[in-house]
Amino acid sequence: MPALPPPADKPQLSAPEKDTPTFSPDNISVVFVLGGPGAGKGTQCDKLVRDYGFTHLSAGDLLREEQDREGSQFGSLIKDYIKEGTIVPMEITVQLLENAMNNDLTNKHGNGRFLIDGEHSHPPPFSPANPDTNLAKTGFPRKMDQALKFEEAVCPSKFTLFFDCPEDVMQERLLNRGKTSGRADDNAESIKKRFKTFVDTSMPVVEYFEKQEKVVRIPATRAPDEVYEEVKEKMGQRGFEMEK
């Protein structure tokens, strides 16, 4: 990983300066995935991986793996941020995403298609004694600065898949999930806070890319298979063909 020296007491980090992004959008396809908690992003991502050959990169998963990786330069730093419930500096997250893309292309012979979001692909049950579960809060691109830094340093995205779902529908889904998930954040009070965070920090990302005509807005109130039918239609309109 390029040097991002972590000085004492966790001051702001600076990403390595680059004149151009690492990857060209002519060769690499990056699709951001956004939607409120309970909008069904994970289910749709699984289907896109299966049918279109995308590699699904989760910022939360990458941070979790990095904090446990032996010899990691940033493992203890990430643990400190997560333990305190604060956001890991975007420079670290962006670099981990770039590293994962490089690894996929070099060692796994990937096809250059990447779905990027911030959720755990399989979130662990929430436990106050396990701060690792706080990684599900990271989100990516959760804020404007994260989205802009990724496009500037790694690769401009093709577009953002935005799963648009009303708050009352998402709340019902999450409360139902909470009956079996064991996650302490699947309760009414926590859910309302998560909705507010999404509206305050992530919706500006959607609106920014929408002005560039780089948002595919998918109504997500229907059953997952019905939602996916529209996803496939919109993917075809954007030039993506199924691999099987």
Tell me the layout of helices and strands:
Elements: E1 29-35, H1 41-52, E2 55-58, H2 59-68, H3 75-83, H4 90-107, E3 113-117, H5 144-153, E4 159-164, H6 167-181, H7 188-211, E5 215-219, H8 224-237
Parallel strand pairs: 1-3, 1-4, 2-3, 4-5
Helix pairs in contact: 2-3, 2-4, 6-7
Describe the overall structure.
This protein has 244 residues and is of the alpha/beta class. The chain has 8 helices and 5 strands; from the N terminus they run E-H-E-H-H-H-E-H-E-H-H-E-H. It has helices spanning 41-52, 59-68, 75-83, 90-107, 144-153, 167-181, 188-211, 224-237; strands at 29-35, 55-58, 113-117, 159-164, 215-219. A 5-stranded parallel β-sheet has the order 2-3-1-4-5, with helices on both faces. It is globular, with a radius of gyration of 18 Å. The model is unreliable at 1-14 and 120-139 (pLDDT under 50).
Helix and strand content put the structural class at: alpha/beta
Basic shape: globular
Radius of gyration: 18 Å
Tell me the number of helical segments per DSSP (H or I, 4 or more residues long): 8
The whole-number mean of residue pLDDT values reads: 84
Helix fraction, binned, reads 40-55%
Order of SSEs: EHEHHHEHEHHEH
- Distance between the first and last residues' Cα: 35 Å
Strand order of the largest sheet: 2-3-1-4-5
Largest sheet: 5 strands, parallel
Low-confidence stretches: 1-14, 120-139
- Count of distinct strands: 5
Roughly what fraction of the amino acids lie in strands?
5-15%
